[in-house]
Each structure stands twice: as structure tokens, then as C-alpha cells.
Write a structure and sequence with these properties.
The complex is a heterodimer of chains A (331) and B (331).
Chain A lengths: L1 H9 L6 H41 L1 H7 L2 H4 L3 E2 L4 E2 L2 H32 L2 H16 L2 H25 L18 H26 L2 H9 L4 H30 L2 H6 L17 H8 L5 H42 L1
Antiparallel strand pairs in A: 1-2
Helix pairs in contact in A: 2-13, 3-13, 5-8, 5-10, 6-8, 7-8, 8-10, 9-10, 10-13, 12-13
Chain B lengths: L1 H24 L1 E5 L4 H15 L3 E4 L3 H10 L4 E4 L5 H6 L4 E16 L8 E2 L1 H9 L8 H6 L11 E5 L4 H13 L1 H6 L12 E3 L1 H11 L3 E6 H7 L5 E3 L5 E2 L3 H10 L20 E9 L5 H12 L16 H12 L3
Parallel strand pairs in B: 1-2, 1-3, 5-9, 6-7, 6-8
Antiparallel strand pairs in B: 3-11, 4-8, 4-11, 9-10
Helix pairs in contact in B: 5-7, 12-13
The chains are: A mainly alpha (331), B alpha/beta (331).
């Protein structure tokens, strides 16, 4: 180690042996600490830089529309009118339905994997679920366009649109498959691995003694899961769901290919819609001036929504944990 | 060790040499994706003939113009001329040089009906406005005697991404329909009254092929390569014209082209009415003037022979001679 010699030479006088050793260790520690600090601070700088760039880029649009940008639903680049409301609602709505679809499947799979599955089945199922996360989103999009969309039209949308259920406010519209439903189903599949894998790990982390205590009191397996395991894991499961929600909000390619890309918002699942990420992907290349600035503000908007969702998740987890501690104390 | 440093030195020198060569001779361009197929061929052939490399990035017309304004590229490819506002931000006077003409085909999918339905401009505008809703509408039937048009809803498909194709199509509709002009207007992306959006010409062509009773507009290359049926358009005098290299060139020949060559050739007196020119935009004063002049001349002379094989139309000789004079003024 050449550096060792260098360091020793660098120490001026001849201090006591132990102190010399101390100094050397201190320098190593300092360098180490310094490297870690730089890494951590660079994350902060990247986020600060992103916010700065997004804000500077959307200056023109902010000056032109102010808060109206978020409440106006008219998106008309030809006339330089930009309102982001349909995109904001479309993003939240498609992600909401994705969670509604993915949460039960994801959670039940996680419970099965951690509590009930025999070992020979648990490994391959876990692996398959994680594999879902590794598929590129454009592949999901193509699959959605050529497989899922015709399937939904034929076996789900068609029968419903022609049946009595069409009277419900969420089913109507033209059942052509380029709509919120297709987007939500694709998103549900995409967030499924996140919800499943994180929930499973959290359930697994619950100490064995907790379950054993419940069984010792005579609880059945169902009672143990419902009454002990799930409440214990509640905060973590909420975290998993929010992670999935955040993922769904920002998903671009797959959604763009099936949602129909119409800048209108309807609660009807069979109507075309649009999301924040999709409109940026679709329109940024040909945009300039105010138009470009408005699209960057859409990016800022998406960033803020993600921030709010994450903050909400943190709060929710905090209060759930508090709640659990309180009731746990009483019991 | 010495050999290693020698090798390294040589490598650095070679890199430096390459870099300096790149800065002295090579050209960089960016912009329109529409011209990318033929640009790729021009660049390849030009390098074979002269040894000069040209780098073209198909990032979209809007982005290409932004790069030109920032001065990071030598030429931009664009499907729409620069606006007055863009010219104001540019670093100097620019010239627009049409390099190819592209017809935009109206394509549809009606089982049992092949190429050759006839449309007039106002009928097309009413379909895209959502006013004509069924294929057996009396106006369509009157123009297509003997064709068995079904009583099925028309499924309108447009581009969801900003594109020059949309600009040409909506410019045409604005010229033939006052209602379209006042309600929608023309731009690379507009606020569509009806229908849903597919991403890129490939996306629109995919939806057209999958959905019976749909109608949409795509670049001519897509209908030819995918073998999907397309319409003949009334040129305003009762003659039906099919999109082709010849009919698109005729549209340019019969239009009055302005001094700056920035004319939209839609709804021309003769030829296929939904055609548009694509432009190469350069600064009048350029550090690489000799290289630019040489390449631009190649594009407008030898390069024009490649147009037809790639489903474009070539620039009429009378416009080429005007362009060559403009090219000589670059210094």
C-alpha cells in the first residue's frame, strides 16, 4: 500500500505511536465520510436542479395562465390555449382504478406467498411476480394494443355496453377499447409486482413470535391473518400501495398506446382520456415557445402531484403507526 | 509503460485530429421525422460520393427549429415554416428551402370496400368535426354511387403526437371549411372535436387496420406499405385525384409560391389537394457556408431522384432553380 507510506510521511513530527495510528484512521474515516456526503448531497442537487429547470422552463406559461392552467380544461395548441385539468384528472383517475384492480390481487398474492404457500410453489410464483416488473413498458403497450384491447372490447366492454349495466355512470361511451379501462388494466398489471413484492417482504418481516402467540390463544389461520398479521403490517402495506400509485402516475408509454389520447375527462371508463405523462411524450417534439413552456409546466405539475402523493403516504404511514402503538398499548 | 503512454498519446492525437476534422467539414442537422427516411439515404450517398459526413437527428420539427435558434446545429428540417416569433428569436436571417413534397392520404377501413372512395374537402371536414356520423350519410353516398356503404358509425382516428402531417391536414380542412377554420384551426396539434389519437403514423395505421368503419389520415408511405385502402379527393373542380408523387408535385406546380418559398400547397388548383412541402432551414450567414451550399445543392439536384422510391414527391424544377439561387446567397 503506497498510500500508507505517504500518510505516515505526512505526519510532521514523531507523535506517540497510538496517536499516529489514530490520525491515519481519522483520515480514512474523513475521506469515507466525505465521499458519502457528496453522494447524498448530489441527490439533493439533482432534485433541486429538476425543480429549478422545470420552473424556469414553464415561466412563460405560468405568466400567461397563472392558476387557470390547473383549472381550465381547454387544451388547444393551435390557439395557444393551455389548460391541464383533463390531464390531471385523467392521470389520477386511471391510477386510481389501477389501484382498485391491483390492490386485492397484489395483497392476496402477498398473503398467500408469506403465510400459506408451500415452498415449492412460493419460489416460482415470487419469481414470476418480480418478472412482471422487468418487462419494458413499451412491451406492455404493444401487448395492450394488440391483445388486451381487442379482448376487453369483445368479452367485457361489448357485452356491458349492450346490457343493462350501461346505465351506470362508469359504463357508457363507445366501447372501442381505447379508453380509461384499457389504461387502468395495463397500469394495474404494471404496479402489481411492486405491491405484491413489498407487501410480501413486510409480511415476512413480522416476528414469528407474534403469529405463534395468536395460534397459542387458539386463533385459526384466518383469524391470525385478519386480526394479527395484517394490522401489524398495515403501515408497510400502505407504503407498498403508495409506491404502486406513484409508479402508475408517471407511467407513459403503455398508457399512451391504449388510452386514446383525447384531452377530455369523463368518469366513464369506456371514454378516451389523456394523462400528464402521455401529453408530454406525444407533443414535446413539435412544440416551441409558449406551447413548449406549457408542456414543461405539465411536467412540473406531474412532479408536484408525485410529491404530494409521497408526502401523503408518509403522513398516512406515520398516523397508522401511531394508531397501532396506541391500540397496542391499550390491549 | 512507455509503449503504453506512446499508444495513449497516439490515440489522443488521432482523436484530436478527428475532432478537428469534424468541426471543419461535417454538418449537423436536426428536426422533422417526416423527412428522416430520405435524409438517411441522402446522407449515406453523400458520404459515399464526397467523404463528408452529415449527422441528422430526427427529433421533430419543433425541436429542430429550437436547436437552429440556439445555434447548436447547421440546418433544421421542418414540416412547417418558422413563425414570425421564431424568426425574431433566431440569431440572424434564415432561408427556407423546400426539399421534398409529401402527400397525406385519407385512409379508411370498411369491409368490402377498397381504395377509391371519393370525398370532397367539406365532407371530410364535417366527418372530422363529428357532423357526419354514419358511413351511409347522403352526402357520402351521393359522391359514391354503386358503393355499398353500411349504416355504421364513422370511427375517426387522428395523430396524438404533434406532427407536420397534422399541420398539412388541418391546413387543408381550414381552407375548405370555414367552420373548421373558426372552430378548430390548423397546427401541429389541434383540439379535435371527435375521435381518438394514435401515436405516430404507425399508431394511426395500426388502429385503422384493427377497426372496421374507421377513417384517418397518414403519410402516403404508410398506405402504400401497409396496403390499406385510401380515398380520392375532389380537387375543388369535381375531378377526383389520388395521392401520388406526380399529383403532389402537380399541386406544388399549380400553387403560387411566395418569395420566401414558405407556401402551404394544400387545396392547390390542380393536383392532390392534401400535400405539403418539407423545408430545410439554414442561416443566411453561416461559418460552414461552403459545406452547406454543397450539401443543399446535392439534395436539390441528385437527391431529388430518390424521392419516388421512398413515397415522396420531388420539388418541381422551377422551384428548384429559385432555391439554387438562394443557396448561392449563403455566405
Amino acid at each position: 500500500m503506497p498510500s500508507e507510506a505517504a500518510v505516515i510521511e505526512a505526519v510532521p513530527a514523531a507523535p506517540p505511536k497510538s496517536r499516529r495510528w489514530e490520525t491515519r484512521r481519522n483520515i480514512g474515516d474523513k475521506v469515507y465520510k466525505w465521499i458519502l456526503t457528496v453522494a447524498a448531497v448530489s441527490v439533493l442537487l439533482i432534485i433541486a436542479g429538476t425543480i429549478y429547470e422545470l420552473t424556469m422552463g414553464s415561466r412563460q406559461s405560468i405568466a400567461a395562465f397563472g392558476l387557470r392552467f390547473f383549472s381550465d380544461s381547454n387544451w388547444d395548441p393551435g390557439r395557444h390555449l393551455f389548460g391541464a385539468l383533463p390531464f390531471i384528472l385523467g392521470t389520477l383517475y386511471s391510477s386510481f382504478w389501477a389501484l382498485v384492480l391491483a390492490l386485492p390481487i397484489g395483497l392476496f398474492t402477498a398473503i398467500f406467498l408469506s403465510e400459506m404457500a408451500p415452498r415449492w410453489l412460493e419460489r416460482p410464483v415470487s419469481f414470476m411476480v418480480e418478472l412482471l416488473a422487468a418487462i419494458p413498458s413499451v412491451v406492455y403497450g404493444l401487448w395492450g394494443l394488440f391483445v388486451l384491447q381487442p379482448f376487453l372490447v369483445k368479452y367485457f366492454e361489448g357485452p356491458i355496453a349492450n346490457g343493462p349495466l350501461a346505465a351506470l355512470p362508469i359504463f357508457g361511451g363507445t366501447a372501442n377499447g381505447y379508453d380509461m379501462l384499457s389504461a387502468s388494466v395495463i397500469l394495474a398489471i404494471m404496479v402489481l409486482p411492486y405491491i405484491t413484492a413489498v407487501s410480501r417482504d413486510i409480511l415476512r418481516a413480522i416476528p414469528r413470535t407474534v403469529r405463534e402467540a395468536s395460534y397459542a390463544l387458539g386463533a385459526t389461520s384466518w383469524e391470525t391473518i385478519k386480526g394479527v398479521v395484517l394490522p401489524y403490517a398495515r403501515a408497510g402495506i400502505i407504503g407498498a400501495v403508495m409506491l404502486g400509485f406513484g409508479r402508475a402516475l408517471g407511467e407513459t408509454m403503455a398508457v399512451t398506446m391504449v388510452i386514446g389520447n383525447a384531452p377530455i375527462f369523463k368518469t366513464d371508463l369506456f371514454s378516451s382520456g389523456y394523462t400528464l405523462a402521455s401529453v408530454i411524450a406525444n407533443e414535446l417534439a413539435e412544440a416551441s415557445g409558449l406551447y413548449r413552456s406549457a408542456l414543461i409546466e405539465i411536467g412540473l405539475c406531474l412532479f408536484l402531484i408525485t410529491l404530494v402523493v409521497n408526502a401523503a403516504a408518509k403522513l398516512l404511514i406515520y398516523y397508522t403507526a401511531q394508531d397501532l402503538n396506541a391500540t397496542g398499548g391499550k390491549k | 509503460m512507455r509503449t503504453f503512454s506512446k499508444t495513449l498519446g497516439c490515440a489522443v492525437l488521432a482523436l484530436a485530429a478527428m475532432a478537428s476534422r469534424a468541426s471543419s467539414q461535417d454538418l449537423t442537422g436536426a428536426g422533422s421525422t417526416f423527412v428522416n427516411p430520405i435524409m438517411t439515404k441522402w446522407i449515406y450517398d453523400y458520404r459515399q460520393a464526397t467523404g463528408i459526413s452529415i449527422n441528422y437527428q430526427a427529433v421533430g420539427s419543433g425541436a429542430g427549429i429550437s436547436n437552429l435558434i440556439d445555434g447548436t446545429i447547421d440546418f433544421a428540417g421542418s414540416d412547417a415554416p418558422m413563425t414570425a416569433e421564431q424568426k425574431g428569436r433566431a440569431k440572424g436571417d434564415v432561408i427556407h428551402l423546400p426539399d421534398v413534397i409529401g402527400p397525406v392520404a385519407i385512409s379508411y377501413n370498411i369491409p368490402g370496400i377498397g381504395t377509391g372512395l371519393g370525398f370532397s374537402g367539406p365532407i371530410l371536414a364535417d366527418i372530422f368535426l363529428g357532423k357526419i356520423k354514419y358511413w351511409d350519410d347522403p352526402q357520402i353516398v351521393a359522391r359514391n354511387p354503386g358503393k355499398n356503404l353500411p349504416h355504421e358509425q364513422i370511427f375517426v382516428v387522428h395523430r396524438s403526437d404533434g406532427s407536420g402531417t397534422t399541420a398539412i391536414f388541418t391546413d387543408y380542412l381550414s381552407k375548405v371549411s370555414p367552420e373548421w377554420k373558426s372552430k378548430v384551426g390548423s397546427a401541429t396539434t389541434v383540439s379535435w372535436p371527435t375521435g381518438l389519437g394514435g401515436k405516430g403514423s404507425a399508431g394511426v395505421a395500426a388502429i385503422l387496420q384493427q377497426h372496421p368503419f374507421s377513417i384517418g389520415y397518414v403519410e402516403f408511405a404508410y398506405v402504400e406499405e401497409n396496403k390499406i385502402p385510401y380515398a380520392a379527393m375532389d380537387d375543388g373542380t369535381g375531378n377526383y385525384v389520388y395521392p401520388s408523387a406526380e399529383s403532389a408535385m402537380q399541386a406544388a406546380q399549380s400553387s403560387t409560391i411566395a418569395e420566401d418559398l414558405c407556401t402551404m400547397i394544400t387545396a392547390a388548383p390542380k393536383g392532390y389537394p392534401i400535400s405539403g412541402m418539407s423545408w430545410l432551414i439554414v442561416y443566411k450567414k453561416s461559418l460552414k457556408a461552403p459545406e452547406l451550399r454543397k450539401f443543399l445543392k446535392y439534395v436539390l439536384t441528385t437527391g431529388q431522384k430518390d424521392t419516388k422510391a421512398l413515397w415522396y414527391a420531388s420539388i418541381p424544377p422551377e422551384i428548384v432553380s429559385r432555391e439554387l439561387k438562394l443557396i448561392d446567397s449563403i455566405e
